[in-house]
Amino acid sequence: MALIITDECINCDVCEPECPNSAITQGEEIYEIAPDRCTECVGHYDEPQCVAVCPVDCIPKDPDHVEDEEQLMVKYDKLQAE
């Protein structure tokens, strides 16, 4: 399951550099996560780094992009091949 940044985001800029897949970018109002690049850090870390550093806890799982760990690992492998 990809992650999503909610409108509680305060644009503190700490999540973007932590993403190993470059899935986080600045949107029009708040940061956004590209679901096709988000692996919840599977393949890189034991936990999503953006969630670990977020000071306002505004990065939940995205119910519109449900994936299990195996699917996230396939996505990780695809991104590594780029």
UniProtKB/TrEMBL annotation:
4Fe-4S ferredoxin-type domain segment(s): 1-29, 31-64
Protein's name in the database: Ferredoxin
GO molecular function annotations of the record: 4 iron, 4 sulfur cluster binding; metal ion binding
Keywords: 4Fe-4S, Electron transport, Iron, Iron-sulfur, Metal-binding, Repeat, Transport
Natural source organism: Pelagibaculum spongiae
PANTHER family named among the record's database cross-references: PHOTOSYSTEM I IRON-SULFUR CENTER, PHOTOSYSTEM I IRON-SULFUR CENTER-RELATED
Superkingdom classification of source: Bacteria
Any Gene Ontology CC annotation: cytoplasm
PROSITE patterns listed in its UniProt record: 4FE4S_FER_1, 4FE4S_FER_2
InterPro entries listed in its UniProt record: 4Fe4S_Fe-S-bd, 4Fe4S_Fe_S_CS, PSI_iron-sulfur_center, YfhL-like
Pfam families tied to this protein: Fer4_7 (PF12838)
